[in-house]
Amino acid sequence: xxxxxxxxxxxxxxxxxxxxxxxxxxxxxxxxxxxxxxxxxxxxxxxxxxxxxxxxxxxxxxxxxxxxxxxxxxxxxxxxxxxxxxxxxxxxxxxxxxxxxxxxxxxxxxxxxxxxxxxxxxxxxxxxxxxxxxxxxxxxxxxxxxxxxxxxxxxxxxxxxxxxxxxxxxxxxxxxxxxxxxxxxxxxxxxxxxxxxxxxxxxxxxxxxxxxxxxxxxxxxxxxxxxxxxxxxxxxxxxxxxxxxxxxxxxxxxxxxxxxxxxxxxxxxxxxxxxxxxxxxxxxxxxxxxxxxxxxxxxxxxxxxxxxxxxxxxxxxxxxxxxxxxxxxxxxxxxxxxxxxxxxxxxxxxxxxxxxxxxxx
Length: 361
Fold this sequence. Notes:
Layout: E1 3-4, E2 21-34, E3 43-52, E4 60-68, E5 94-98, E6 103-106, H1 108-117, E7 125-133, E8 138-146, E9 159-164, E10 168-171, E11 177-180, E12 189-192, E13 198-199, E14 201-203, E15 217-219, E16 234-243, E17 253-260, E18 263-268, E19 274-275, E20 285-289, E21 297-306, E22 321-325, E23 327-330
Parallel strand pairs: 1-6
Antiparallel strand pairs: 2-3, 2-7, 2-10, 3-6, 3-8, 4-5, 4-7, 8-9, 11-23, 12-13, 12-16, 14-15, 16-21, 17-20, 17-22, 18-19, 18-21
């Protein structure tokens, strides 16, 4: 019989073979109490997903995650939602190992715990449990519901349904992604500021401050300092990359930054912007990217560099620029070769400032 998913996973030998194709199962989830504000009938809903390894000899390690379904904004059919962030959060994968003929169950407590990790604050969640495995599995979802919304009263089931979850073949994300996003190496765009959108200018030595090892300064200018002052301005520099949906990362990524400007801020995707105490010389300032800020598909790193005033009006806007050293390895993050899972367009972004929330009003 299926046992509950343990907090400590089985310590069994793991097959580290990385096939080019895997089996994927997407089981619908509706878990927790829902009131009158929900499209579901008010009551308490339960989801349990049973997973069985049908192999007679092979031990299998599968991975599962939670993809939260967020309600689509109510809008006119004429409103184009393409390119907007309307989807829900996605948890990291958790690995589970099953011996031949073993079974395990992912149920409400597991699902709601993953929901909290993604930032969920309500006691209910709708979406999908997504399972990926190198070998075919038996996956059956079990749904039940009661008419009451509290756990103490949810003792009478009004509905019970089971459903076998079909498998699909997907390209496996098994190659590590080695990224060098350093300025002077990767394409950095000016997405807000003078002349945006366009590629940032790479400033060649010696017409610049000393760069970090293996990098070059970038700016909206073409040289330092042989250009006239410009009005005070803000320049947003951005570079983007694509991650395969199966990427695995356990710790923060670190960048080293030099910058010249009146104020510098940093952000990833649509996360809140944070101030960076960067200078234009020395060993640089370290900034980190928490793993939770990285998403499957397109990811963008942005720096906001505000120009400082260098004299009374109209004398303002001295040289400003950015120098970043960023070299990462992201396990199973590559979207190339037989692991190709498709990639978002990395074409120039639209001429508007990124969505990141300012650190101050």
